[in-house]
């Protein structure tokens, strides 16, 4: 097989006193996401999808929240490390698609900036990076604005020479 698919999911709690960063883009909001790193749920879901496609485990294995090295880490930097891992194994991303689930703030105005940031970090074109946004229709923890969740899938293709 020269193609592999992976999926990823992440959710972080919304709290005051933290920045809101999604897809490497800082979004103005009175709440931000809580986590050991910058808590960029979208970028984390994408990393898990990439690792999952090659059955390499999850980001908790590579960047454990118990390790002070990753405190406040820029998730885009972690994403480039995961991408390098994939490239080193002779694979590359064909495309990825993702969904951010947030009741507030409005995510749509920031989608193109996220696609730009993510595609640059992954050495892809923005056309290969899908980011969509939806609400949870006010239902459940995301609907009550207790957190923001993200889902991602990615298709990896084996390099022809390896
Ligand atoms: Zn996370």
Q: Tell me the Rg in angstroms.
A: 15 Å
Note poorly predicted spans. none
The total number of structural domains is 1
Query: Hetero groups bound?
Result: zinc ion
Structure summary, number of beta strands: 7
Mean pLDDT: 96
The spatial strand order of the largest sheet comes to 4-1-7-5-6
Order of helices and strands: EEEEHHHEHEHE
Second rung of CATH, namely the architecture: 2-Layer Sandwich
How helical, in percent, are the residues? 25-40%
In CATH, the homologous superfamily goes by the name 2-C-methyl-D-erythritol 2,4-cyclodiphosphate synthase
Q: Briefly, what CATH class?
A: Alpha Beta
Report what the structure shows:
With 162 residues, the chain is of the alpha+beta class. It has a single domain (3-158), classed as 2-C-methyl-D-erythritol 2,4-cyclodiphosphate synthase (60s Ribosomal Protein L30, Chain: A, 2-Layer Sandwich), CATH 3.30.1330.50. The protein is 28% helix and 31% strand. A hairpin with a 2-residue loop joins strand 2 (20-22) and strand 3. Helix 1 runs parallel beside helix 3 (75-88). The two termini are 12 Å apart. The mean pLDDT is 96. Zinc ion binds next to strand 1 and helix 1.
What keywords describe this structure?
162 residues, alpha+beta, 60s Ribosomal Protein L30, Chain: A, five-stranded mixed sheet, two-stranded antiparallel ribbon, 5 helices, 7 strands, 28% helix, binds zinc ion
SSE order and pairing:
Layout (H helix, E strand, L loop, with lengths): L2 E13 L4 E3 L2 E3 L4 E2 L7 H13 L5 H4 L12 H14 L2 E11 L9 H11 L7 E6 L5 H4 L3 E12 L4
Parallel strand pairs: 5-6
Antiparallel strand pairs: 1-4, 1-7, 2-3, 5-7
Helix pairs in contact: 1-3
